[in-house]
Design goal:
11 helices; 291 residues; three-stranded antiparallel sheet; seven-stranded mixed sheet
């Protein structure tokens, strides 16, 4: 009789668990999401974690806006910021809803900084807790280079480009003065876009905004004094305000939410990517986020 060693049995058990997990994820992704039974008249969308992909947030905003029972949306922000383009796409979606007079109120939790703050600017009203960390109106790009380390171990790299700026941020060489000047121009232009958006929606002249738009973080109370948020209050305060704004007879005890559809294969690869240190995933990125 053939007997398997404990190692073989362990390997078989491990792969059985992996296969069952993948099957469960695939099945769950195919099942429709159940909606709340009481059909709340207010929706809830959350911006959580580092911004990298705006599509899930935008899909939720559009789905809730198109539901006839939904009269307004609460946008909960718990984010340090992230990709500039992702923040701008969420910003544009809210801007469109503001133009269409669809009520959206933003409420900041522990942190709504940089791109997280930018995303919520077109909301009809912004609530922050006194201790919320917000603001951080600034831009950052950073990259590593290991030229000296490679020299010590006798390694080198060859890069062929079509122009001098194509390999800016190359981790295998030290940055040149012209590289840094070029990156600074990109950062400055992106920062100017941030300033223009804050100035427009918070009605603060750009010249008055510049001294405090150097990347510094504010508490909610400091942000209120600077005009960066409207009201100091909790998420429940924001819900009460939106209920009145939408003319509801009572304040809902629950909010309608939509879980964005995400293919199981993307969930798998997102999990694998998150295991890689952030500094190794991209050599150079321009970000609206806390360092």
């Amino acid at each position: 009789m053939l007997r398997f060693s404990k190692i073989v049995w362990f390997i078989l058990a491990f792969w059985a668990v992996v296969c069952l997990t993948l099957i469960a994820v695939m099945i769950s992704s195919l099942l429709p999401e159940s909606s709340l039974t009481d059909k709340s008249q207010l929706g809830l969308v959350t911006i959580e974690g580092e911004l990298s992909d705006a599509r899930p947030v935008i899909e939720q905003l559009h789905t809730l806006r198109d539901e006839t029972s939904i009269k307004g949306i609460v946008l909960r922000v718990e984010s340090p910021g992230g990709s500039v383009a992702a923040a701008q796409e969420i910003f544009s979606a809210l801007e469109e809803m503001r133009r269409d007079s669809f009520p959206v109120v933003a409420t900041f939790g522990n942190m709504a900084a940089s791109g997280g703050y930018y995303s919520a600017l077109p909301a009809e009203r912004i609530f922050a807790n006194p201790g919320t960390l917000t603001g951080s109106i600034g831009v950052i790009t950073q990259f590593m280079h290991g030229e000296k380390l490679m020299e010590k171990i006798g390694l080198g790299s060859v890069t062929v480009t079509s122009g001098n700026m194509k390999d800016v941020g190359n981790p295998f060489r030290a940055p040149r003065p012209e590289d840094l000047a070029y990156l600074k121009s990109v950062v400055d232009d992106t920062h100017e876009q941030f300033l223009e958006a804050v100035s427009k929606w918070r009605k603060i002249p750009i010249d008055s905004l510049r001294p405090i738009a150097d990347g510094r973080v504010f508490t909610g109370r400091m942000a209120k004094a600077a005009g960066l948020v409207d009201t100091l209050g909790t998420m429940q305060d924001a819900i009460r305000w939106l209920s009145t704004r939408c003319g509801l007879e009572s304040v809902p005890t629950t909010l309608e939410s939509v879980k964005p559809e995400e293919p199981w294969i993307r969930q798998l690869f997102d999990g694998l990517e998150s295991a890689v240190p952030a500094g190794l995933r991209n050599s150079s990125r321009v970000l609206w986020k806390l360092p």
